[in-house]
From TrEMBL:
Keywords: Cell inner membrane, Cell membrane, Membrane, Transmembrane, Transmembrane helix, Transport. It is a multi-pass membrane protein. One of its GO terms (cellular component) is plasma membrane. This is ABC transporter, permease component. SUPFAM superfamilies: MetI-like. It is found in: Cell inner membrane; Cell membrane.
């Protein structure tokens, strides 16, 4: 038996009892929880019901199961499904390894430039994937990429060293975009782990690696698994990067095949039928997660927290720093630098020199006659509203799941996560079918879609943090006479502020660059920046699209810095 295993020790201790709900005595709690469940049913269950209906409907409108057979016999469907599974396996593996390792270095060691790693992880996450593709094609296309041409000249080689237009290139783009989901989730979990467990192991003779593997890793296992599932579902439902790379490299994935079915004339029943197996896959992932972590108690955060003492890496400090810089350079500096250069180029294909660089694209972008101000205003309003709504819903829903004995509370988790597993295009169809009559041509339609898809990101972070907070703290507050709302506001929320803040940032970033559902739901008066960027790319104005993308990234970074400070940046970096 491992002397330093906290899981085995915690299993022996009785788990804190769940909070008993006295509905009649707590009308405020009843109203808030009821409103959260009603909102969840409205933004997730209702659209999904429409999609399920269409998956079981034939061309004549009658009930049938033939749609699933038709989908299976669609040319190229099995190859697309195989490509999707291979893509998921590679991206989840690489994102989990990179994100977990970086989170441990930032939260637990004396590696330099922690703030740089955190900032660059945020940058790599906020750059839209369809714009990341443009930047990487500009840099690493096999024949025309500027980076390839530069290295070929410098090294005197005849063939380009990189080929981003390949399946491996798609794996790279998806990985550098999604590893921050694991990084931020594990970072938040590590900051909620009482480091006295690790210090005790070190005092008793455990080395750095052993204490990390037997103490830190088991205690943040829920965060690792939950974020890995998010990466898995996000990769499975990704459309922008697979569409661009797959078209150029001549391969398909499930989402691109689904998009083909929505082209004119749209075959909504077949598109919905493709999405149903993804729902089943999502349920299986949630079942595996519950099986692996549901039997153990991971609560380690009580009323007294020991200040983190960074682990001295010794001779490994600078190699770890070099590895962190490599990830930072590959995931943020290089693509963002490519975007910046692309946004300044006057004539694409000509040498990059002072005569070919100017700010004319930005001047045109900020010209009121260009028409981007309305899209900018819509994007900001939607991102702020979505992030705030998801943060509030995540706190209430996580509390329901982790602190109550409410019958069917497990369905809350299932309902939240299913929406994330749905391909955005298919889910957008469900939103359109369910709410087009009530909210056609309004931002509310987009808000419903954004909130339903992005809620799992904040929910996973908040629920993971809540798992680590002892219920004894809330019970002590209630014994002292505090009501439920006062207890949550004064006790629970302060302990969750880092997780809620990170979730708010991630959802804001996801919302401001959301594309797949926006293409379907946005109308003339509700255009957002992502749809404008896509239109610029379609019109061949790549440099203008890059300039607007730089503006999107700058906005996200500004908001990220502000909220990070409010949420407690020092606490997230040093424990």
């Amino acid at each position: 038996m491992n002397d330093f295993s906290p899981v085995s020790a915690l299993r022996m201790a009785p788990a804190p009892s769940r909070v008993r709900l006295d509905w009649l005595a707590q009308p405020v709690r009843l109203a808030i929880i009821g409103a959260a469940i009603a909102a969840l049913l409205g933004i997730v269950a209702y659209p999904l019901a429409y999609l399920l209906k269409f998956s079981l409907t034939g061309a004549d409108g009658a009930f049938t199961l033939d749609t699933f057979g038709t989908v299976l016999h669609t040319p190229g469907m099995f190859a697309a499904a195989g490509n999707s599974l291979i893509l998921v396996a590679w991206v989840v593996t690489l994102s989990t390894l990179v994100g977990t390792a970086l989170a441990w270095l930032v939260a637990r060691t004396d590696v330099p430039a922690k703030g740089l790693v955190v900032a660059c992880a945020g940058i790599s996450f906020v750059i839209p994937t369809f714009i990341t593709v443009v930047a990487w094609i500009f840099l690493a296309a096999p024949n025309s990429g500027y980076l390839n041409r530069l290295l070929m000249d410098w090294l005197g080689i005849a063939s380009p060293p990189f080929d981003i237009i390949s399946f491996g290139g798609l794996v790279l783009i998806e990985t550098i975009h999604l590893y921050p989901l694991v990084f931020f989730s594990v970072l938040s979990a590590l900051n909620n782990v009482d480091v006295s467990h690790e210090q005790a192991a070190r005092i008793l003779g455990a080395g750095r690696l052993r204490s990390a593997l037997t103490i830190s890793l088991p205690l943040v296992l829920p965060a690792i698994l939950a974020s890995a599932i998010l990466v898995m579902l996000d990769t499975l439902s990704s459309f922008g990067a697979p569409s661009v790379i797959g078209t150029m490299a001549n391969f398909s994935v499930l989402t691109t095949k689904l998009y083909d079915l929505l082209a004119f004339p749209p075959q909504l029943n077949l598109a919905a039928a493709i999405a149903v197996p993804i729902v089943v896959y999502t349920l299986l992932c949630l079942g595996v997660q519950r099986l692996l972590v549901g039997r153990d108690d991971y609560r380690t955060l009580g009323g007294k927290v020991t200040r983190t003492q960074p682990v001295a890496l010794g001779r490994w400090r600078w190699p770890a720093f070099a590895a962190s810089l490599a990830v930072v350079f590959l995931s943020a500096v290089l693509p963002l630098g490519g975007l910046l250069v692309l946004s300044l180029i006057q004539v694409l294909g000509m040498p990059i020199d002072a005569g070919n660089l100017a700010l004319s694209h930005y001047r045109q972008l900020f010209d009121e006659s260009f028409g981007t101000f309305a899209a900018f205003e819509n994007s900001m309003l939607l991102a702020l509203a979505t992030a705030t709504l998801c943060a509030g819903l995540a706190v209430v829903c996580a509390w329901i799941v982790e602190r109550t004995r409410l019958p069917g509370r497990g369905l809350v988790t299932v309902l939240i996560m299913i929406a994330y597993g749905f391909p955005s295009i298919a889910f957008g169809v469900g939103i359109m079918l369910g709410y087009i009559d009530a909210f056609h041509g309004t931002l509310t339609l987009l808000l419903i879609a954004y909130a339903a898809k992005q809620l799992p990101v904040t929910f996973v972070l908040v629920r993971t943090a809540l798992k680590q907070i002892s219920a004894d703290l809330e019970e002590a507050a209630r014994i002292a006479g505090a009501g439920w709302l006062r207890t949550v506001w004064d006790i629970t929320l302060p302990l969750l502020r880092v997780s809620v803040g990170i979730g708010w940032i991630l959802v804001f970033s996801l919302s401001i660059r959301e594309l797949s559902m926006s293409v379907l739901l946005a109308q003339t008066d509700t255009q957002v920046m992502s749809t404008v960027i896509l239109q610029l790319i379609a019109d061949g104005s790549i440099e203008m699209a890059a300039a607007l993308s730089v503006v999107v990234v700058a906005i996200c970074l500004g908001v990220m810095g502000l909220v990070w400070k409010i949420a407690g940046r020092a606490a997230s970096l040093h424990g």
